[in-house]
UniProtKB/TrEMBL annotation:
Domain of life: Bacteria
Name of the molecule in the record: Poly(A) polymerase
The entry's keywords: Magnesium, Metal-binding, Nucleotide-binding, Nucleotidyltransferase, Transferase, tRNA processing
Listed cofactors: Mg(2+)
Listed Pfam families: HD (PF01966), PolyA_pol (PF01743), PolyA_pol_RNAbd (PF12627)
EC number(s) recorded for this UniProt protein: 2.7.7.19
InterPro entries from the UniProt entry: Bact_CCA-adding_enz_type3_sf, HD/PDEase_dom, HD_domain, HDIG_dom, NT_sf, PolA_pol_head_dom, PolyA_RNA-bd, tRNA_adenylyltransferase
Amino acid sequence: MPNANNDSHTTPSTNELSHVQRRAVSELLRVSPVADDLARRFKEAGFSLALVGGSVRDALLGRLGNDLDFTTDARPEDVLKIVRPWADAVWEVGIAFGTVGCRKSDFDIEVTTYRSEAYDRTSRKPEVSYGDSIEQDLVRRDFTVNAMAVALPEKEFIDPHNGLEDLAARILRTPGTPEESFSDDPLRMMRAARFAAQLDFEVAPEVVEAMTEMSGRLEIVSAERVRDELNKLIISDHPRKGLRLLVDTGLATLVLPELPALRLERDEHHRHKDVYEHTLTVLEQAVDLEENGPDLVLRLAALLHDIGKPRTRRFEKDGRVSFHHHEVVGAKMTKSRMTKLKYSNELVKDVSKLVELHLRFHGYGTGEWTDSAVRRYVRDAGPLLDRLHKLTRSDCTTRNKRKANALSRAYDGLEERIAQLQEQEALDSIRPDLDGNQIMEILGVGPGPQIGKAYKHMLELRLENGPMEPEAAVAALKEWWATQG
């Protein structure tokens, strides 16, 4: 590589470099028709174009998708003139930051003008100024593995910060000093944890040190940007790695303080399992149970399911430690934290509900629940039932194989009973045997609070006894109505 320097970090072998380069060639050949066509159009207009950042990194890792990032010396208005006649669709959502988006065939493309980006010390928004060279653009990027480019159509590899070596070594470093990089955009500290989780890379010691010393700078970043990075970390392949880095550097204290709070002090007299480590294990086990790709709702519920424990911890006289009603307290805390992070109301509701219900199964024992209790379990979980199954199973982290097997068998039994009842009674859509209109007709009463009470009573009967014949349902309604004065 023509960009070697004399820094002291370990240099990977030639075989390692040639391996990632071979993967990159095959990836770039796949996107070459679209990329080269676009590059020729920029060249004819008097501008340069290069594949850049995550696209180059992912090509070298053999995981390049259909989202392509380019950088250019053309200003946004010039980019628009070039891509509009060529692309299938164009959007200008990011044009204030110098980015023009477009779609061509199966590819989603972003073209960004060379730029430098810096935060005012008190501002939440980056100030954007355009640059004149690709070297100036690359030095402002977050990590060396994202500061590589391939100039098109010549296919010239540009790597002024030894990103290829760091990629082969699977390490995250910053192009300049970490302090300068994190001052420019404090969110990059979270991105370090996110990329560690996504790529299973290590973070260089000097970067970890800067993250720890500068964690307070994250306060100027908007909740929405923090939330988006946290989501990407949580749905990554190795979320435990990223979350542990957030906790160890102190960033989690600002982003998700409930997580480090799980590291409860322990003493020799009062023993309980490590709630923090248990939580990370539950998250990993939930990931293993996913069937159709990352499930953000399930993973958030696994991460937050025990956050009520620190507030409910009690030391009992017999030496045990109790956490009574931690699921109720935890559900309220989950709602509060997710609201502060600007999650959607629907997501807040779903995750909070799972946290609230995650202990319900432990009253099942060895199958003592009545059919009505099983119906209520299904009714309360609603569309979250499948996720509740996964969360409950993930919550078993005991090393006692006999206990773990007993819990697994008990939950197998509950799922079998649910399946049997669903087949018999359509539990997923439990309704009273009489609807609101029928209730009003039978009672001769118009809409109002009494009809709501009657509907609720009939629903309780349905949950308790299962389906009733129409005549029995009418008789039960009239019997209840007679008690209402």
